[in-house]
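Onboarding guide, step 5: your first structure request.
Type a short instruction followed by the sequence, for example:

Predict the 3D structure of this protein.
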Amino acid sequence: MTLHEIERALRELRLSGIAATLSTRVMQAQSTQEPFLDTFAAMLQDELDRRRSRLTERRFKQSRLDERPTLNDFDWRFNPKLPRQACFELHTLKFVSEGGNALIIGKPGTGKSHVAKAVAYQATLQGFDVRYVEADTEFARHALSSTAEQAALLRSFIEPDLIVLDDLFLARRISEASAELLQTVVHQRYKQRRSIVVTSNRVVQDWGKYLGDATMATTILDRLMHRAAMLEFEGKSYRLKEAASRIALNTADSP
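The system replies with C-alpha cells like these:
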C-alpha cells in the first residue's frame, strides 16, 4: 500500500490520530532509523492522545460550562479569609467519588461561582459526567417546557455524576413548580449518591422563605447536608473591584 492508501485505510478504521501524524512519524523513523516498535508505539500514543482530547472536549461541551476556570487563576489575596483549604479539598473531587455534596454560601461577588466552575471543570478533565446549571433560570425554563422536554431536563439534572446549581435563589422566591423540581432533583440524587454543588447568596436558614414552604426546605437541606461540605464566603466583591478599576482606567485615559 502507498502512504496515501494507508492514510485512507486509517480513516476508514477511524484511526484519525494515527492518520494525522503518519507522514511525520514515517519521516522521523527514516531520519533516526529507530526500531519499528518504537515508531509503532509513538503512532499508537498519537491515537490515544487524539481520542482523549476529543473525549475531554465532548465532556466539556456536555457540561454546559461557559468557561474553563481553575483555582490557580483565582485571586486568593483579595479576600484572604476565604476557605482556601476547603476549596482545594473540593478540587480533589474526593466528594464526587463518595457521593457527597458542597454548599458554597456567601456574599455576591466573592468568587463562589468561580470555585464551583473550577471544580466542575476539573471533574470533566477527570472523566466525570458534569452539568452546570444556572439554577433559577433553568428551573423556570423547566416549568414552561412541554412534558417531553421536562422529562429530558429532569434526566439531565439527575443522571450526571456532578451537577452545579449556581446562584440558587438569586431572585429570592422561586415558583412552586421550581421548588418541587429542586426537591425532586435533590431527593433522586441523594438516593443515587450523585453529587451536587450549590452556590447561593442566601443563608440556609432563610431557604424556607424562598421556597415558600419551611417543611420542604427542611427536607431538601436534610438530604443536601447529610454528606456535605459547607463553605462560607465572606469579603469584598471581585466584580466591584474590577468595575472600580475600569472606571479608574477610563478616567485616567480621559482628556
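Each response can be followed by summary notes, for example: The mean pLDDT is 88.
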